[in-house]
Design a protein that fits this description.
alpha+beta, 3-stranded antiparallel beta sheet, 20% helix, elongated, 70 residues
């Protein structure tokens, strides 16, 4: 059985957490490509971050933070 501290270490995935830092080193699926067939943008929330999945004019997909950094 895990202690509460061990459980939090393994399950908290927000920015700056040990598991969040580990998972951000790998590709993560955020949506199916078919979800973007009829839309240009879609809000997604993954690892405690609000992001926007978008499609550019050529149809290429991208992912950015929901809030403008400046």
């Amino acid at each position: 059985m895990l202690t509460q501290d061990e459980n939090e270490l393994l399950t908290q995935t927000g920015p700056g957490t040990p598991m969040g830092d580990l998972l951000r080193r790998y590709w993560q699926p955020v949506a199916a490509a078919a979800d973007m067939d009829d839309r240009w943008t879609m809000r997604v929330r993954i690892m405690s971050e609000d992001l926007v999945l978008f499609k550019d004019r050529t149809g290429k997909l991208g992912l950015i933070g929901e809030q403008c950094p400046h």
